């Protein structure tokens, strides 16, 4: 989802390890975390954050939509010592940006046959934008600051 030059650079970075107690990489997204459910965001865990990271960001998107990519959630300025996100919450001090639909917060995925990516980024400094910041500005800021990243992908919605 983030620009191609930044994407090429990220491919050379050491990846973070991303997991979830309720979601497995390459498996379906449980419907509780989709627009058919009422739970909100799934829990995520990550490890391998570089010692020089100053913040963490999370982007949830799909990249194979016939109508174009959609960003379902952006959370940034997460304290770098944080290593998990519990179900339906954001860490204290974290900020949520706008999504593709313009809303702030987790916009549950709805297209049952698409892949949904839960990407965790380690950043060399805070994003420093306000809650609800425009998506394009937020994604550019995350791309410009990324020093490591990892991803968990759901293949479709249960």
Automatic annotation (TrEMBL):
> Which SUPFAM superfamilies does the annotation name?
PEBP-like (SSF49777)
Reply yes or no: does the keyword Transmembrane apply: no
UniProt KW keywords: Protein kinase inhibitor
Sorted alphabetically, which Gene3D superfamilies does this protein's record hold? PEBP-like
Name a GO molecular-function annotation. Answer: protein kinase inhibitor activity
Q: What CDD domains has UniProt attached to this entry?
A: PEBP_bact_arch
Which InterPro entries does the record match to this protein? PEBP, PEBP-like_sf, YbhB_YbcL/LppC-like
Which family does the record claim for this protein?
A: Belongs to the UPF0098 family.
| PANTHER family from the UniProt entry | PEBP (PHOSPHATIDYLETHANOLAMINE-BINDING PROTEIN) FAMILY PROTEIN, UNCHARACTERIZED PROTEIN YBCL-RELATED
Could you tell me what this protein is called? Answer: YbhB/YbcL family Raf kinase inhibitor-like protein
Q: What is the lineage of its organism?
A: Bacteria, Bacillati, Actinomycetota, Actinomycetes, Streptosporangiales
């Amino acid at each position: 989802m983030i620009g191609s030059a930044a994407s090429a650079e990220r491919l050379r970075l050491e990846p973070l390890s991303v997991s979830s107690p309720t979601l497995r990489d390459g498996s379906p997204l449980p419907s509780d975390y989709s627009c058919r459910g009422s739970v909100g965001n799934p829990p995520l865990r990550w490890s391998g954050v570089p010692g020089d990271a100053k913040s963490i960001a999370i982007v949830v998107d799909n990249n194979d939509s016939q109508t174009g990519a959609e960003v379902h959630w952006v959370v940034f300025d997460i304290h770098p010592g944080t290593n998990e996100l519990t179900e339906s919450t954001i860490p204290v001090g974290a900020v949520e940006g706008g999504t593709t639909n313009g809303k702030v917060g987790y916009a549950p995925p709805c297209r049952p046959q698409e892949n949904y990516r839960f990407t965790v980024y380690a950043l060399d400094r805070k994003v420093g934008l306000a809650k609800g910041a425009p998506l394009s500005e937020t994604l550019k800021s995350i791309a410009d600051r990324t020093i490591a990243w990892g991803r968990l992908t759901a293949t479709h919605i249960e």
